[in-house]
Amino acid sequence: MPFSARALQALVCLVMTTFADLGLSETTLQALRDVGYTEPSPIQEQTIPALLEGRDIIGQAQTGSGKTAAFGLPLVEYIDPEIKDCQAIVLTPTRELCIQVTQALRAYGEPKGVDVVAVFGGAPIRTQQAQLRAGGQIVVGTVGRVLDLINRASLILHDCRFVVLDEADEMLDLGFLEDVEKILSRTPSGRQTALFSATMPPPIRKLADRYLYEPEVIKVEAKTLTVDTVEQFRLEVNQKDKPAKLVEVLASEKPTQAIVFARTKIRCDQLFKTLRDKGMNVRALHGDMSQGSRDGVMLSFKGGRVPILVATDVAARGLDISSVTHVVNFDVPVSPDTYVHRIGRTGRVGRSGRAITFVEPKQQGELEAIEKHTGVSMTAWNPGAKTAAAPVEEKPRRHEKPHVDKKVPADGPWAKLIVGAGKAEGLKPADLVKAVTSAAGVGGEAVRDVKIFERFSFLSVPEGDAKRIIEAVSGSSVNGTELSLEPVGADG
Fold it and tell me: What's the CATH code of the domain at 367?
């Protein structure tokens, strides 16, 4: 009996272990080798072949699943570098995500000579207009700025054959769906469309029904995210007692860094004031703040200068910080998918994390839905509470030293870092090596795999010293350019 096409595709996915199996060109495979990717994630395994076949897709996956490469690699394959017009557009809800996606697409498209232009609010529009006049085969942009540039006739989408809507549920939360539809109406009817969303509320489903043609639905559960690395607790509390209980929880847990999730902007501000008045070093992050204020808060939190952040779901989407040790759900999330997304902010890159969810008596149904979705029964929280399974402890590896002096073992674990500067700033490999060795006090053997691209660079350092090197080198200056280092994430 012959297999169906879907059965064959599922069978193929079972045996795929490399990017070469997915149908990508050698040029794109070289780009993947340059950024250190070796094996495709589940969302990439399923999405890349479908997009290369020209199909519309709906991808439902959490942050950290690798969805940027899932749509970005086929997108780069489609681009004709000889044609300077906009051939693809990626819409993002926030400036932070726009920048993150742009950096990834530039890395993927570098060997092929693909020009990627980022357009977003809070930056001079004239500069972005000039960049679009000079090229921009792929445009990555926030919804408002893209629509503004279209209305000014600075962005023409007549030849745009590929459209990506990234984190569509956040666009919904920010009230952007009407503008998204206006943008889609300016693109060719024969376009290929990919929609990605961590959750799938009814308005997003309606959008997909209206603008996507027979889409293939690809859903990837991030099971290991919630089970293996995050201890999950519940705390039953009456609504009026929740602010005081939050103060007690934070005082007891003593987090290195914590994100407290609130459902509304008003609640977010209230909790910020409550914790601040208790003498805590805390900041708030929500959509009503100016872009400048949001940037300042995010930089302070990412830099470790602020240990506690009170945020709404939308505002926290751009945060991907490995040092977050705790997540507190002050309000029960509106859906199990949102819960998974929230607690995924801790327990990252092999570290353990703790998630504590406040549950009001009337919310037992929501709690049970979350536990069924994650397959984990939450433990009742009390001071010093532990789950049945002890948290993963970070033990020093056999070949690691607490500090690197002059020699680094060749077989030790290494961490790949991205530097926000490259050839455009006159950066050379020797400059990076010198910057690291001087600022962090390590030998030259502690820096390897240095690669300089046009607007950013990569290097590898001993994993055990990565955090210290990032802190020491970030902010230092090379050739008049201030360096910023970050670990390379899975969602690049």
Answer: 3.40.50.300
